[in-house]
Amino acid sequence: MKSHCLLWRCLTLGDDLTSRLIREGVPDPAIKTFVSLLLSGGGETTDKAMGNMWWHVLQEPELVARLEADHSLLDAYFSETMRHSPPVHREDRGATRDVELAGVAIPYGAVVRCWLASGNRDDTVFDDPDTFDPFRGDLYSERDLRAGYFRDGLFGHLGFGLGRHFCIGYQLARREAVVGAQELLRVMKSPRLSNEQMDVIKARKRDGSIRSVADLHMEFDLR
């Protein structure tokens, strides 16, 4: 049985994503699951990524000035955020067979906890990895790499995962963060941290899976 919202969309098809899924004949349960994933993934983690990006940018007046002068730098700023301070810090994987990795035997069925943030701070890959630097020359900052992590002589970040488990909503997350920041910069100038800003980027769950700033207090002048 269709939900009221899905039935309404079936009767009023438009050019939106849900209408396209309906036209393609995707089963109703799959559509509900897909839309739920977009809502959760495009909300909780993306807003944390945006908060982390602005927190870093507002620490350095030079970063603010360069961004105000050239909004196209937002892609590089966002990529460096996903490398240095991704909101999702780890992913769990199940071993489908016995395997040895870096000299460690991993039996079939074992759960492997992969720390994406650790890979993003690998000093054999990135120079001065603990420093937030959107202009570093060793990070691939164009369209995020789904199937691999090395292109044009540069490594990509692991903030969205890798391979077949690459985040399905990565394009939505990037566009939300970049377009959202562009819209803010259209109406505000000289953004800066408020004196009330006390929070920092830190773990928000006991297992360390989510790391972000909880509150971000900004001040700015209107254009």
Structural class: alpha+beta
Portion in helices: 25-40%
Strand order of the largest sheet: 1-4
Query: Using only CA atoms, what is the Rg?
Result: 20 Å
- Oligomerization category of the chains in this entry: single chain
Structural overview:
- There is one protein chain.
- This protein has 223 residues and is an alpha+beta fold.
- It has a single domain, classed as Cytochrome P450 (Cytochrome p450, Orthogonal Bundle).
- The chain is built from seven helices and ten strands.
- The strands form five sheets. The chain has a two-stranded antiparallel sheet with strand order 1-4. The chain has a two-stranded antiparallel sheet with strand order 2-3. The protein has a two-stranded antiparallel ribbon with strand order 5-6.
- Helix 3 crosses helix 7 (170-187).
Summarize the structure.
Helices cover 39% and strands 16% of the residues. By secondary structure, it is of the alpha+beta class.
Salient structural properties:
Cytochrome p450; two-stranded antiparallel sheet; 223 residues; single chain; 10 strands; alpha+beta; globular
Topology:
Elements: H1 4-11, H2 17-23, H3 28-57, H4 61-69, H5 74-84, E1 90-94, E2 99-101, E3 104-106, E4 111-115, H6 116-120, E5 150-151, E6 154-155, H7 170-187, E7 188-193, E8 202-203, E9 211-212, E10 218-222
Antiparallel strand pairs: 1-4, 2-3, 5-6, 7-10, 8-9
